[in-house]
Amino acid sequence: MLRLSDLHASYGSAPVVQGVSLTVEKGETVALLGPNGAGKSTLLAAITGTIAERRGEIFFENENLVKEKSHAIVARGVALVPEGRLVFVPFSVEDNLRLGAVRLRGGREAMRERFAYVYGLFPRLNERRSQRAGTLSGGEQQMLAIGRALMSHPRLLLLDEPFLGLAPLVVLEIRNALEKLRKSGLTLLIVEQKLDIALAFAQRAYVLIKGRVALEETTARLAQRAELADLYFSLATSSAASARPSL
Ligand SMILES: Nc1ncnc2c1ncn2[C@@H]1O[C@H](COP(=O)(O)OP(=O)(O)OP(=O)(O)O)[C@@H](O)[C@H]1O
Ligand SMILES: [Mg+2]
Description:
Blueprint: E1 2-11, E2 14-24, E3 29-33, H1 40-48, E4 54-60, E5 63-64, H2 70-76, E6 78-81, H3 93-100, H4 107-121, H5 123-127, H6 138-150, E7 156-160, H7 168-183, E8 187-191, H8 195-201, E9 204-209, E10 212-218, H9 219-224, H10 226-238
Parallel strand pairs: 3-8, 3-9, 6-7, 7-8
Antiparallel strand pairs: 1-2, 1-4, 4-5, 9-10
Helix pairs in contact: 3-6
This protein binds adenosine-5'-triphosphate (ATP) and magnesium ion (MG).
Adenosine-5'-triphosphate binds near residues 11, 14, 40, 41 and 42.
């Protein structure tokens, strides 16, 4: 479904993603691991076209997106749940969701179906339709960020550290929702720093170090090969200088 080939992305003259190749099959859940500053968020931004300086190939369902604008990429069926949630705080839950549907085709009927789908997945959002997003709890904001991405009816959902800073019960609630999405056939590429969550959730994982793929492995094999996990953690620790507080 997604195939990156020798993808580079940079901010001005500073290269960040440096020749990444990876694949995500239809229906698969793939984790992207790596220490702070490895370029995980930049890689997702490159896929969704929100970073201008990129080269290489980004094949999504056999179309190369590397020259396409972000709105066209969303319209093709790729949606991003960004790091740090980034909901529109002064707007209501409902308006946030509506904004996620600007590229949705199919008119009012499609919009109604999407609202019902998102509210079915996250009943808490349904209860808080008219509440301002800025007054939601962190967990509810994350649900809203996921819901907003789902409003465009994506076939590939990119999630950037969706569990960061959330209490265990909310993590469980969101994991259950993602599990449902996965069972419904949605393809997921999920950035996650915690190895245990990635191992429990994904079928395969890529470890990104300094903008390059350092390791690609099925999560089943990764779990068996403790030395790989150790390697990953030692690499992560060695670049801990730029780390934010561990949660
Ligand atoms: N808008 C920007 N302008 C310039 N440099 C940036 C910008 N965003 C990120 N960078 C740099 O790109 C590098 C990779 O950042 P990125 O956010 O992609 O890493 P990450 O793997 O997502 O890290 P984290 O785990 O902390 O979220 C970092 O050195 C960062 O300083
Ligand atoms: Mg990041």
